[in-house]
Design goal:
The complex is a heterodimer of chains A (about 500) and B (about 325).
Chain A lengths: L1 H13 L2 H19 L5 H8 L8 H26 L8 H12 L3 H34 L4 H15 L7 H16 L1 E2 L6 E2 L13 H19 L13 H10 L4 H16 L3 H16 L12 H16 L1 H7 L5 H12 L8 H4 L1 H32 L4 H20 L3 H18 L5 H24 L10 H27 L9
Antiparallel strand pairs in A: 1-2
Helix pairs in contact in A: 1-17, 2-4, 2-17, 3-4, 3-15, 4-5, 4-6, 4-15, 4-17, 5-6, 5-13, 6-10, 6-11, 6-13, 6-14, 6-17, 7-12, 7-20, 7-21, 8-20, 9-18, 9-19, 11-12, 11-13, 12-13, 18-19
Chain B lengths: L4 H17 L9 E5 L6 H16 L6 E5 L6 H9 L6 E5 L2 H8 L9 E11 L1 E5 L7 H10 L5 E5 L4 H13 L4 E5 L2 H9 L5 E2 L3 H9 L3 E6 L23 H4 L7 E9 L4 H15 L2 H9 L3 E5 L1 H22 L5
Parallel strand pairs in B: 1-2, 1-3, 6-7, 6-8
Antiparallel strand pairs in B: 3-10, 4-10, 4-11, 5-8, 5-9
Helix pairs in contact in B: 1-10, 4-12
Classes of the chains: A mainly alpha (about 500), B alpha/beta (about 325).
Chain lengths: ~500, ~325
C-alpha cells in the first residue's frame, strides 16, 4: 500500500494550476496532431520535445504525455468520420465506427469511442499504480520466443474474422508481410526488397499504407458512387452524447476484456495496434451479435478503443521501469527523459519518486481532462459530416497528402500513398480484405525478428516454443484460436456440403 | 584504402585558414540536424543534447531543426546528406557507422562523399554478465565459454554493427565461441540480459547503467586503454572506475570505442566546416556537455581537422579487418 501513499504525494506534485494548464494545452495540441493522419503522436511529441528542454522534468513530461492522450483520442475521430485512421492503433476502430457514422450515428460512435478509450486508459493507469513492481518483473520474463508467441496470438485471434474467402485473406496478409520486409533487416544486417531505391532503405511506413489504403482508396470509391456520403443527414444533438453515455454500462464485458487485452499488450511488446486488432477479433468471436460486426456494431467500436488506450497508457510502465519503450511515442519520451537528466530503468522509481509518481498522477488527471475535452468537441466534429462532399473531399485529399509528407518529410512517400490508394481501391472492388494486410505490416517484421532470434538462440530447434510454461501457454492459446474457425468451417461443411460455394 | 583526397584537401584548407575564415561564414537560414537514428537512440540523444546546449547558450543566431532519418541503420540519413552536396545548412550526426556502413551493405553513398566536421565523444563498451552468474571476473567467464563452445549467448544491437564486431574480436583474441543474437537496440539487449535470456552483452555504459544500479547485471571489464572516470559508487561496492580494463582482466583487446561524429555534405566551403568545428568545440566546453558525458559515462574527446582524419583512418582500418575476416564485405 506504499504505492498509494506515493500516488497521493504524486497528486500533490501534479495538481498545480500550471500543470493542469499544461495538460489542457497538451491535450488540445494532441487532438490536433491526432486528427491529421500521418502527423501522429510520435511526430507530435518529437516536434514538441525541444520546447521542453528548459522546463522542469515533471512539467515537461506532463505536457508530452497529455499530448499523447490527446493524439490517441484525435486518431479515433477521423477513423470514425472518414474511414481514415489518424493513428495506426485506430485502424480497427474504422471497421465499425465508420459504418456507424455512415448510418447517421456519428455522435454515438464518437461518444462510445471516447468513453471506452477513457475507461481503458484508466484501467491501464490503475494497473501501473497497483502492480508496477510486479509488472516490471513479469516483463523481464519475456524473450524472443515469448515475443513471437504474443505476435502469433495476435495473428491467430484475427484469423477467420472477415467475410472474405480464406484465399483472399492469405493473399492480403502475404502482401502485408512483403511490405513489412522492405528495408534493412535487423537479424542479417542486409537490405531486402529495396531494388536500389534509396527511398526504400527505411522500409515502407505503415502510416503511408494506411493513409493510402483507407483515405485515398475510400475517396476514390466515394467519387465513383456519385460524389456523396450516404446517410449523413442526421442532425447533431448534444442530447445524443448523454444518451450514449447511459448505454455504456451495457458493454461491461467487452470493456473489461478489452482493457485486460490492452494492458497485457502494452506491457508485453505487442503495443497498442496489436491490442486493438486482437481485442476487436475476440469481441467479434465472443459476441452474441457476431453478424452485426463490420456493419456498425457499437461493440466493434468499444472493443478496439478500450484496448488501444489501455495499451497506450500501460506502455509507459516498461519505459519507466525497464528503459524499453512499449510504443513509438514512448520511445520519443524516453529520449526526452535522458535529455532532462533522468535515467529510465529500474532505479528511476527509487531515485526520482517525485517524478515517477507525479507522472502517474498526471496520467489520471490528463485522461480525465482529455475525455472531457474531446466529448465537448463531438458536436463540432460530427457536424463536419454535413458539409457537402464537393468541399470536404478535396480537403481530405489535402490532409491525407500533408499527413503522408509529415511522416518522414519525404516527397517519395506522396507517390507511395497514391499507389496504396489505388491498391486500396482495387482491393475494395475485388472484395479483398484490407485489415489482414495492415496487421501483417504492423507486426510482420517484429514477428519475423522474434522468430529468427529464437531460432538463433535454440540453434534451429522449434522446441524453444515449448521450452517453458509461459511460452507454451501462449502458443497453445494461439493455436487454439487459429484452429477454432477452421474447425467450425470443417464442421459446417460436413453438415451442409452445399454451402461451400464461397471459396472461388 | 579509401580515396579521401577530396575531403582531405577540404579539411586541410579548413584547418589552415580556420581562424581567419570562420568570421566569413555564418548560417543564413535555420540549420537542419540530421540524426541517423530513430528518436530515443544514442545518436538522437547526442544530437539533441548539442541542440539544447546551442539553444541555451545562444551559440548560434539561426534556429535548429532536428530530423530523424534512421532507416537502414542510419544509411537513410547519410544518403540524404550525400544528396545535399554543397549545402552547409545540414549537419549530420552519427557514429563510426558513417564510414563503416558502406562496407556491409550496398548503399548509394561513399564515406568520401561526406565531409567530417568533428568527433565529440568516445562511447565505451563493457562486457556484462548477469549479477547472479558465477563468474567473478572476465577470465573465468571466458574460460567457461571456452569449455562449452557455441552454447553461450552474446546479445547486441543490430547485425554486423559495433557489438557483433566486438564479439568477433573477443572470439579471435580468446578462442571462445559465442552465439551472437542481434536485437533491435542496446536497451533490448540489456533487458534480455537482466531477464537471464542471454549470458552476456557488450552494451555501452548508458544502456546498462540502470540495470546495474538495480543489481540485475554486473560489468566484468571495459574495452578501454584506461579505466573509466567517475569516483562515485554506482552500487554499494562498485563505481565506474572500479571496473578493470579488459586487458588487465585477461582479454587481450586494448581498445574498442565508438566515436560520436558530426558530418557535413560533400562540396561545402571550408569556411563552413571551420564554423561548425568551432561551434561544436564551444559546445564541448560547456558544463552541460560535461554533465552529459558524465551521465552516459563516455570519454570526452574532441577531435577535428587532422586529428579527426587520423582517427577515422585507423578506426576504419581496424574495423575493416574484422569485416574482411567475417566475410561481411559487400564491395
Amino acid at each position: 500500500m506504499e504505492n498509494f501513499a506515493s500516488l497521493l504525494h504524486g497528486f500533490g506534485v501534479a495538481l498545480t494550476t500550471y500543470h493542469v494548464m499544461l495538460m489542457m494545452v497538451g491535450v488540445l495540441l494532441g487532438i490536433l496532431v491526432g486528427v491529421l493522419p500521418g502527423l501522429g503522436a510520435p511526430n507530435g511529441v518529437s516536434l514538441l520535445l525541444p520546447l521542453t528542454f528548459t522546463m522542469d522534468p515533471v512539467a515537461a513530461i506532463i505536457l508530452l504525455t497529455s499530448m499523447y492522450w490527446g493524439a490517441l483520442f484525435g486518431g479515433s475521430t477521423t477513423s470514425i468520420l472518414f474511414n481514415i485512421p489518424g493513428e495506426p492503433s485506430s485502424v480497427a476502430t474504422t471497421f465499425d465506427g465508420y459504418p456507424m457514422a455512415r448510418q447517421g450515428h456519428a455522435t454515438q460512435a464518437l461518444t462510445l469511442a471516447f468513453l471506452s478509450a477513457g475507461f481503458g486508459a484508466l484501467v491501464g493507469v490503475i494497473l501501473i499504480t497497483v502492480l508496477s513492481t510486479w509488472v516490471a518483473k513479469f516483463a523481464l520474463r519475456f524473450s524472443s520466443p515469448e515475443y513471437f508467441a504474443v505476435y502469433f496470438l495476435a495473428f491467430a485471434s484475427f484469423i477467420g474474422l472477415g467475410a472474405a474467402s480464406p484465399f483472399k485473406t492469405v493473399v492480403s496478409m502475404g502482401l502485408g508481410f512483403a511490405f513489412a520486409a522492405v528495408g534493412m533487416d535487423t537479424v542479417s544486417g542486409g537490405l531486402r526488397l529495396t531494388y536500389g531505391f534509396n527511398e526504400l532503405l527505411s522500409g515502407i511506413s505503415f502510416l503511408i499504407a494506411v493513409i493510402g489504403l483507407f483515405g485515398i482508396g475510400e475517396l476514390m470509391l466515394t467519387m465513383e458512387e456519385g460524389l456523396r456520403f450516404d446517410g449523413i443527414r442526421a442532425r447533431v444533438k448534444v442530447r445524443d452524447v448523454f444518451k450514449t453515455i447511459a448505454t455504456l454500462p451495457r458493454y461491461w464485458v467487452t470493456l473489461l476484456r478489452s482493457a485486460a487485452i490492452g494492458c497485457w499488450m502494452g506491457i508485453t511488446p505487442g503495443g497498442p495496434t496489436a491490442a486493438s486488432f486482437m481485442s476487436y477479433g475476440l469481441a467479434k468471436r465472443l459476441s452474441r451479435r457476431k453478424d452485426g460486426f463490420g456493419q456498425g456494431e457499437p461493440e466493434g467500436v468499444v472493443a478496439p478503443e478500450t484496448a488501444d488506450h489501455a495499451a497506450g497508457s500501460s506502455a509507459i510502465l516498461p519505459m519507466l521501469a525497464l528503459g524499453v519503450p512499449g510504443s513509438a511515442t514512448a520511445a520519443v519520451m524516453m529520449g526526452g527523459l535522458m535529455i532532462w537528466g533522468l535515467n529510465p530503468g529500474p532505479m528511476l522509481f527509487v531515485e526520482r519518486p517525485d517524478f515517477v509518481w507525479g507522472l502517474i498522477a498526471s496520467m489520471y488527471l490528463g485522461n480525465i481532462v482529455a475525455v472531457l475535452m474531446v466529448l465537448a468537441t463531438i458536436p463540432l466534429f460530427a457536424s463536419i459530416l454535413r458539409i457537402p462532399f464537393a468541399i470536404i473531399g478535396p480537403v481530405i485529399v489535402v490532409v491525407c497528402f500533408i499527413g503522408a509528407y509529415t511522416v518522414a518529410g519525404r516527397p517519395f512517400d506522396l507517390w507511395l500513398a497514391l499507389a496504396f490508394g489505388v491498391v486500396g481501391y482495387l482491393f475494395k472492388k475485388l472484395d479483398y480484405p484490407i485489415a489482414p494486410l495492415v496487421l501483417a505490416m504492423v507486426l510482420g517484421d517484429k514477428a519475423e525478428d522474434a522468430f529468427r532470434q529464437s531460432m538463433i538462440m535454440s540453434r534451429g530447434s522449434l522446441s524453444i516454443f515449448w521450452s517453458n510454461g509461459l511460452v507454451a501457454t501462449l502458443m497453445l492459446i494461439g493455436i487454439a484460436l487459429a484452429l477454432g474457425p477452421l474447425l467450425s468451417i470443417v464442421l459446417s461443411r460436413l453438415v451442409k456440403p452445399k454451402a461451400s460455394s464461397a471459396v472461388a | 584504402m579509401l580515396k579521401k583526397t577530396s575531403w582531405l584537401l577540404a579539411t586541410a584548407v579548413a584547418v589552415t585558414f580556420g581562424g581567419v575564415a570562420q568570421a566569413d561564414w555564418k548560417p543564413a537560414k535555420p540549420v537542419e540536424f540530421v540524426v541517423t537514428s530513430a528518436p530515443g537512440g544514442g545518436t538522437d540523444n547526442f544530437a539533441r543534447v548539442v541542440q539544447s546546449i546551442i539553444a541555451k547558450h545562444k551559440l548560434m543566431d539561426q534556429s535548429i531543426v532536428v530530423t530523424n532519418k534512421g532507416g537502414g541503420s542510419g544509411a537513410e540519413g547519410f544518403i540524404y546528406t550525400k544528396i545535399a552536396t554543397g549545402d552547409s545548412h545540414k549537419l549530420t550526426f552519427g557514429t563510426n557507422n558513417a564510414y563503416l556502413l558502406p562496407y556491409v551493405a550496398k548503399l548509394a553513398y561513399k564515406p568520401d562523399e561526406l565531409t567530417p566536421v568533428a568527433a565529440m565523444a568516445l562511447d565505451e563498451f563493457l562486457l556484462w554478465v548477469k549479477a547472479d552468474a558465477p563468474y567473478k571476473d572476465a577470465k573465468s567467464y571466458i574460460e567457461a565459454v571456452k569449455a562449452k563452445p557455441d552454447t553461450f549467448k552474446m546479445g547486441g544491437s543490430q547485425s554486423k554493427d559495433t557489438d557483433q564486431t566486438l564479439t568477433s574480436l573477443i572470439q579471435d583474441a580468446t578462442g571462445a565461441k559465442f552465439i551472437y543474437v542481434p536485437f533491435q537496440g542496446g536497451g533490448a539487449a540489456g533487458v534480455q540480459l537482466a531477464g537471464g535470456h542471454i549470458d552476456s552483452n557488450t552494451n555501452n555504459p548508458n544502456e546498462n547503467a540502470g540495470q546495474w544500479k538495480a543489481g540485475a547485471i554486473t560489468p566484468l571489464c571495459v574495452f578501454s586503454p584506461t579505466r573509466l572516470q567517475g569516483g562515485v559508487k554506482v552500487t554499494a561496492t562498485m563505481g565506474w572506475s572500479d571496473i578493470p580494463t579488459c586487458k588487465e582482466a585477461g582479454i587481450p583487446i586494448d581498445q574498442f570505442q565508438m566515436p560520436r561524429t558530426v558530418w557535413l555534405p560533400g562540396g561545402v566551403p571550408a569556411e563552413s566546416v571551420a564554423f561548425y568545428a568551432d561551434l561544436l568545440k564551444k559546445v564541448s566546453e560547456t558544463p552541460e556537455w560535461k554533465e552529459y558525458i558524465d551521465r552516459t559515462s563516455q570519454t570526452n574527446r574532441f577531435l577535428a581537422g587532422q586529428d579527426l582524419k587520423t582517427f577515422i583512418a585507423s578506426d576504419d582500418a581496424k574495423n575493416r579487418k574484422v569485416f574482411e575476416q567475417e566475410g561481411w564485405l559487400v564491395r
